Amino acid sequence: MGHKENPPETQDEVLYGVSSTVLDNIRIALDTKRYKHLRFLLKELHAADVADVMLHLSVEERESFLEAIKAVFDPNILIELEPSILTHVLDVLDINALAKAISGLNSDDALYIIEDLKEEKRQKLLLSLPAKDRVIFEKYLTYPEQSAGRLMQREIVCVPPFWNTQQTLDFIRDTAELPQNFYDIYVVDPRHHPVGKIPLSHLVKAPRDNVVSDIMAEEIHTIPVLADQEEVALSFNHYALVSAPVVNEEGRIVGMITVDDVVEVIEEEIEEDIRLMSKVSAASDFYDPVLLTAGWRIRWLLITIVNTLIASYVISRFESSIQNLTALSFLMTINAAMGGNAGMQVVTVVVRALATRTLREGDTWRAIRKEVNVSLLVGLFCSAVLALIAGAWLHNWGISLILGISLIFNILWAGFAGTFLPIFIEKLGMDPAISAGPLLTTTTDVFGYTIFLGLATLFLL
Amino acid sequence: MGHKENPPETQDEVLYGVSSTVLDNIRIALDTKRYKHLRFLLKELHAADVADVMLHLSVEERESFLEAIKAVFDPNILIELEPSILTHVLDVLDINALAKAISGLNSDDALYIIEDLKEEKRQKLLLSLPAKDRVIFEKYLTYPEQSAGRLMQREIVCVPPFWNTQQTLDFIRDTAELPQNFYDIYVVDPRHHPVGKIPLSHLVKAPRDNVVSDIMAEEIHTIPVLADQEEVALSFNHYALVSAPVVNEEGRIVGMITVDDVVEVIEEEIEEDIRLMSKVSAASDFYDPVLLTAGWRIRWLLITIVNTLIASYVISRFESSIQNLTALSFLMTINAAMGGNAGMQVVTVVVRALATRTLREGDTWRAIRKEVNVSLLVGLFCSAVLALIAGAWLHNWGISLILGISLIFNILWAGFAGTFLPIFIEKLGMDPAISAGPLLTTTTDVFGYTIFLGLATLFLL
Lengths: 461, 461
What we know:
Tetracycline Repressor, domain 2, 3-stranded mixed β-sheet, 23 helices, mainly alpha, homodimer, CBS-domain, MgtE N-terminal fold, 3 domains, 67% helix
């Protein structure tokens, strides 16, 4: 934290981030062009906090901010920036500043920046790097996006199984080119296949003459270089890993992934899931351009437009029934809304369970049975409540009975379809987080309007 | 990974978890009561994988499974179990088995089990522990749930600033009671206040005669013992921490939190957020009892019931307009649905931005301006599309014009209220993830029906 003189106002400020006072002071220094003072204010801040400051500046402020600090720019700030801010900053920085920044980073962090450059600038930057580094990054860029190969760093500590503890410690102390931070040492055979690992804390606890092969853990969770980053995150989470070796198709160790990269991935993937489930998708930050955000939103709303049009068409088929019994017009929305909401509860649970792998193929029928049972209870309760309210309101117990019965059926359908649809969509190889929700509410709308208006037409008119 | 003889069928199985073949073999061994073979099958599995197996067994299978493995039960399995399964297992295990399990765990993991016990069983267990341990756990239990105090482990490595590298390494090698795994060494003053930290990988790289105070990083991100676990997770994520010291009210170091605990918290909190946003809440796993799940679902649906009743009431006020122009009955749902969906997109983005602290008080107007601008574009586009479709469908350009105009206003309202409501709710000290959604859709329903039916009544009837 650094400064503890003033008691912070809220719990937040104790733990992380810049306070609004610091932010205000930075803004003032920027506005009054006192750049020396600005650099002084920033000197005490962690790179993540400087990135946080830049998030809260306007586009113009950010550009003069960059101009002011460019001589003392810490490359670690780049990797902490929000994606939309990073794109802007990379546009502003020139090739020389970028090349300098890249050389100060671990290979995985440098790659993160290179990935984000526009094609033309990326080529220029790669050409300005030393040949050795250029080859490395070009190799990196051949791995698919969001694969383990893009996440890993090439800097690793590998030792042969026949060394002892002391030799290993001496090797670490005497080798200049090691990762900035590492938590495990990998034991490799002569073909460079990993055969074990030693957590660093076990190495320093072991007697000096212990042989590496005796103290290493043979249970290593190797990551194939082409594995998807979501799988990598689930694996780290499942086995509570702090680092894991990455191997190529031949099983040779080519790098390692550390838990900090994975925490990023978890946040990213879950953010993505939340957005997909809420039909928001990418480019929705306040820091993205209006036109881009509107474009994404409209794409999702187009699905909604189709849904509502289908529902409207279904209702229009019952036009004359509604004209004869106008109470139908305000009760029909209850059935559709309740079915949609109950169904979305089920879809959310099932989609999450599929994403976290707590629900698998073999559990399909068990899950459907459970959800249908729950829906039966939920349906009985909600339809009783709503039928009673509708009856008391309209003094028409015929229509309230039909509302209750159609509601039970719609909620039961929501329970069945809400479980079945996501599982089915995943089986087809598509992402249920995107399509299950709109598909389900279309069915609950169609089913809800049809059964309520249909039963009313049959029995009341 | 262990066995690599058979090529795995899917990418999933390469990275983690048990394959369905392994699961089937375990089931067969269990059904045929070949418990020795069962234990043999389990020997090769990581504790997290055994927990995974138990998740997929039925209640009865799980009980005979526990009976079969109880003699060789690995306590680490307990901390990997899903909450609802853990509760069941703790019910089945007797006090002696529990006490044995507790003694084999790190203090934070042991606490996790003790927390989950029913009051009576917890007291019995605490009494069966050695007095020293009992005192420690009783102290632990005085920290609020979901606080840093409950997450931390007491086992830490602390050294004085005047030691050198060699002394520190000798201390680590010669001290028996150290944490199983650690990644940083904390430097403390005589009052036991942390003054610096050394990542273990820096310690082993440093020359033997370097003094601790020269190689330590003074930037330590201490965590107050009462801090909320969500704040802890955000702080770890922000500064990419692997471990952090926990201090009590006097600033004394009392424990440490490691990144694996935090990964759990991140998953837990985000799971909670997703559930709150989707109005599902706790007890929604397939592995929870039907009655419990139904109870939770109904609680949320009660809010929905109120919403739909309000909307129904609004519509009923326009009963005679609908009777005179029945097309209103099927067009009115379009306006309400589009407003609700567009508004939920906004609410989701704002709630997430508040939760991840990318949106702060000072940004309120900037966020509202952005969202209203986006909504203007979205509203213009959607209302043009829908007005054209409605006009072409009904050959009534008056009603389609009114649909278009009311849709623009409703989507604009959704953009404003969708940004303002969550920020306002958070300012009142409540959680916007729970209440912002239903509140917003109630307003878009009421506003949507009123403006569309109202304008139609004024101009068309």
